[in-house]
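step 4 of 6: structure.
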Amino acid sequence: MSIAYLNGSFTPLSEAKISPMDRGFLFGDGVYEVIPCYEGQLVAMPYHLERLNHSLSGIALTSPHSEADLLEMLLTLVQKNGGGNLGVYLQITRGPTMKRQHAFPEHCQPTVFAYTFPISEPSDGSTDTASCFTAVTKPDKRWERCHIKSTALLGNVLHMMEAVEDGAEEVLLFNEREELTEAAACNVFIVSGGAILTPELDHQILPGVTRRQCIELLQRYTDWTIETRPVHLEEVLKAEEIWLSSSTKELAPVVKLNGVAINEGVPGPRWEAAQSLFQQYRFSDF
Ligand SMILES: Cc1ncc(COP(=O)(O)O)c(C=O)c1O
């Protein structure tokens, strides 16, 4: 039985209830984190807490819990769900309200919800264990605040459906200058002329914890050229390798883009080396 945390209590997930007047439900007025946990150990927790704080301040919401309390609650939740390999979902919304009005109400008690779901450990960096993706390219039609990890994900959901409708598993998004932003649920890296390129952080992309870990690992353990800069569609279409990054996937190779094979349809050598660094160092303090 899956155990959830809701507003101070641990309860079976199937019994957790929130008000239909919760602003998270009515407006998507909330923020969230997804933290991977392997053998009961949370990954990159300081980075997740730092981003949670940025997301909360981005929507002018104060967490009802201190960082220490949140951490303790999440560790207890992991234990109650048997430890092991879990994705930990944490959501804080502005909470329930009496009246549906757009402006923030004066008094609102935030809703804090967390639950876990099973995940498998990402690849060790070998081609045999890689989870490979197919993707398509599309114009990014989301809002101008993609740096906030908001629960209001309808834009991302609709983009993911564009991928599904085209028979692909992810979508690489491009702004009006045809520069890469990110994917519907991941950040993106490409290998071009041997260099590792990824868009710089701004309002168009989520500051991914895995993106941050990847850059730090590559800077520390390789002598590769790593550039955070605008990445044009033309460079992506000609890339030697394309990687998706997210907390539960770490680095996943894109092996087909718009129906065309990348690196002959198999994960590339740079991906193998980068993902095996995650395998070795995912728990290290960066
Ligand atoms: C839109 C988007 N970009 C990037 C990411 C990757 O972020 P992280 O590495 O922190 O999981 C996610 C993860 O859910 C996402 O939804």
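step 5 of 6: annotate
 - Residues 34, 156, 182, 185-187, 206, 208-211, 245-247 surround pyridoxal-5'-phosphate (CB under 6 Å).
 - The two ends are 35 Å apart (CA to CA).
step 6 of 6: archive
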